[in-house]
Amino acid sequence: MRNNLELPFRYILTVSELTQEIKEILETRFPDIWVEGEISNLRIPPSGHIYLTLKDDFSQIRAVFFKMKARTLRFVLEDGLHVICHGRVSLYEKRGEYQLILEEVEPKGIGALQLAFLQLKDRLEKEGLFDLARKKPIPMVPQTIGIVTSPTGAVISDMLHIIHRRFENVHILLNPVRVQGEGASLEIAKAIEDLNKWMNVDVIIVGRGGGSLEDLWPFNEEIVARAIYHSKIPIISAVGHETDYTISDFVADLRAPTPSAAAELVVKDKREIKNTLHYLEERLENQILQTLKDYRTDLFHLRKMLIDPRKKIEEYFLRVDDLVNRFRILFSWTLKGRRERSLHLKESLFLRIPIKRIENLRSLISENRKRLGQTMRYSMEIQRQKVEGIFGKLESLSPLSILQRGYSITRKLPSLQILRDVVHVREGDKVEVKLHKGTLLCGVEKMKIS
Amino acid sequence: MAKERFEDALNKLEKIVSQLEEGDIPLEESLKLFEEGIRLSRICNQKLDEAEKKVEILIKGEDGTLKAKPFAPSTSSGQIPSVNSDEPISEEDEN
Predict the structure, then answer these.
(1) Which chain B residues in 15-74 lie under 8 Å from chain A, judged by CB atoms?
(2) What is the predicted ipTM?
(3) What is the pLDDT of residues B56-69, one digit of tens each?
(4) Scanning A195, A202, A342, A372, which has the fewest C-beta atoms within 10 Å of its C-beta?
């Protein structure tokens, strides 16, 4: 192996010879290296080979990742991504360029799977697969529950146990799949589609027990995410432990932290629902009984108020007569009082006062009389208004309105006793019949005892 | 009668109960609501008891179609049940 080219002075090389030498030096010096740098100028032509430049602050080097090797990539290469590459240096004679031929590429500072997860999550989120608005509600009482998980292991038996404990009579349909490893994601996606084709499945649980990111990986794959998205049946995603979040969890209509939690979420406790129903029925019955009771009470009170209208009218007549009497007394009092006082004055006047003064006093008297008249008229007016007011009120309150309906009041003359019984009259007696409008003066022709 | 969903019937029932409890409803309407409430409650109870307890597993037959067969979980780590089995899938033998 020659490290230095020792040539005689002015030995003229061809370009190819020079290139060949350089190539040998480079390729033997760097047959297997790890390089860290930032991706730029990423290009993927139709051939599928990946061309990029790896750079840092001061230098750059071209690199190529051939399709066959690139297939193993779990994440997506992007400009700006910091990566650690494993490969070898090679010189491409035709163009006189050296480059890295890559075997593997890993992201720097984060696991490949984690990066892949973030990239896919970002991409699907932007597409709208996680939108809240398109999530379907989980039916409250499903008749058939589909489950996509491994048919063996604790997960399925736990779920069956919990579901039947809460809701005995429900139909469970298991579509068995592998839940990790190569090809599992395809099985899971297919299983979701199959359940969609099966009739009457109301809700689907998709999940598995806890494991590493690698174990859970199928539930982070795009094919599963899209199968969940396109499912017409609501899906509950139940992958791993509480702290595990997978793409399935984001796309699904509901996330359960664990498969057991999914079993609790998918059915309510049947006894609880039955109790709720029972309670509602009770309230319903109580309420209707109360309503009926209230109506019965109202009816009772109304009936009480419905007294014989004749009795009511008698009452009112008595009150009216009473009021009129009281008014008359008040009125006469006033009048009487004033009259007596004026007489008294007159007497004392004639007894003591000289004739000269009589004239003065006479005019005083006539003045007083005038005033008296005014006062009387005034107070009469007031009383009259009062009575009118009372009458007015009586009228509006009065069941004399019953007369409007055709009832009439018959009173014996001259006593004005209200007649209710033919016993109180004889043939030939005169009676007054008060109608709603007007009164009749009638004579009794004949009586009939009813 | 259209097939009502359980939660719809339950919601309607709850609404009726609140309506009646709020009061101010004429007697005839109260009675109608009461009847409807009872009907909804019966429907809900019916739906709860409707389903049949069944546990099945989907298996792809020879012709590629899927069939449902009875299933009982086993705790051994067996393989996915084979295609042509007509027996209930339970108690796998360790292979």
Answers:
(1) 16-17, 20-21, 23, 25, 27, 30-31, 34, 37-38, 41, 44-45, 47-58, 66, 68, 71, 73-74
(2) 0.74
(3) 999 888 787 888 88
(4) A342
